[in-house]
Design a protein that fits this description.
The protein is an alpha+beta fold and about 290 residues long. The chain has 2 domains: about 1-110, Arc Repressor Mutant, subunit A (Orthogonal Bundle); about 140-290, Multidrug-efflux Transporter 1 Regulator Bmrr, Chain A, CATH 3.20.80.10. The chain is built from 10 helices and 9 strands. The model has no long low-confidence stretch (mean pLDDT about 90).
């Protein structure tokens, strides 16, 4: 039970981090959210997440900035650095080069010519990518979403292993009488630049209000706001190439800016739970004009 308490508290911290990468993410402020002393917080966070709090924050900020550089070609590097929580352009450039072995500017140029995103190392997904090359994206719909309360379980790695996380979350939903509630999946990582085994995914069930008891399942509120909505259906392996098309082809041509909060899907049919591994879902990409 003690480990579940640690997990629950650290989940609250992770939600706080991902809800806005530009706010105060000092260890002292985050320790208060977890209700730990700062020293104890550092130890527990590393036990639960596998890396230090500073390493984790730097990584997610750099991933977000790499996405912005790829998919928002009209934004300056300085603006992107600021939006993703870096206090100076020089500190951003130094951290970016250490993470990606190139400068932000060269990264942006090189990504225009990248034809082999990491997810193509998976033969099944690579086959789906080739199948969908000439398939047009569905019509986009712009929607203003209200915040959504969810119960959730985090998962690292984008593969069929997500099925077990969904089975556990569904068992919890059954015990709470929530089995018919909407199912959502948060895509924290962009698989065009992050290897599938390191992609961060969150399985979610919509709930009416925050949970009073947490542990293996925690609760959070997904931010609302303007989103671009795309309806997709297909079979396991086809979703990531479809999302990639939205990010690589549709977004750069709109002049819109991708939000720093996670994109997510709302399932009508969840391929991780369907025997035929088929999905029917709506993909929501947070977007803004500035």
């Amino acid at each position: 039970m003690k480990n579940l308490s640690h997990k629950s508290r650290i989940n609250n911290v992770l939600h706080y981090i991902h809800s806005d990468l530009n706010k105060n993410l000092s260890a002292n402020a985050l320790a208060k959210i977890a209700n730990y002393s700062e020293q104890h917080f550092h130890r527990v966070f590393k036990e639960q997440v596998g890396e230090s709090i500073n390493q984790y924050i730097r990584k997610v900020r750099l991933e977000a900035s790499a996405n912005q550089l790829m998919f928002s070609p009209d934004r300056t590097v300085a603006d992107i650095a600021s939006k993703c929580g870096f206090q100076s352009l020089s500190s951003f450039a130094q951290a970016f080069k250490k993470q990606f072995s190139t400068s932000p500017g060269r990264w942006r140029e090189s990504q225009k010519r990248v034809n082999n995103p990491p997810y193509l190392l998976d033969k099944e997904i690579a086959a789906a990518y080739q199948k969908l090359v000439d398939v047009a994206l569905p019509e986009v719909e712009f929607v203003q979403l209200a915040p959504i309360n969810v119960g959730y379980i985090r998962h690292t790695g984008y593969s069929r292993s997500i099925k077990q996380t969904w089975q556990i979350l569904n068992a919890w939903a059954m015990s709470q009488g929530l089995l018919n509630n909407r199912q959502l999946g948060l895509h924290h990582s962009n698989p065009t630049s992050v290897s599938l085994d390191k992609c961060r995914y969150v399985a979610c069930i919509e709930i009416e209000k925050p949970l009073t008891k947490t542990g293996l399942v925690n609760s959070m509120m997904l931010p609302g706001g303007l989103h671009a909505k795309f309806d997709f259906e297909g079979v396991y392996g086809e979703l990531l190439p479809s999302i990639s098309k939205v990010l690589e082809q549709w977004l750069p041509n709109t002049g819109l800016i991708a939000g720093t909060t996670p994109a997510f899907v709302i399932y009508q049919q969840n391929h991780f739970l369907s025997k035929d591994e088929r999905y029917q879902l709506s993909f929501y990409l947070p977007v803004s004009f500035y």
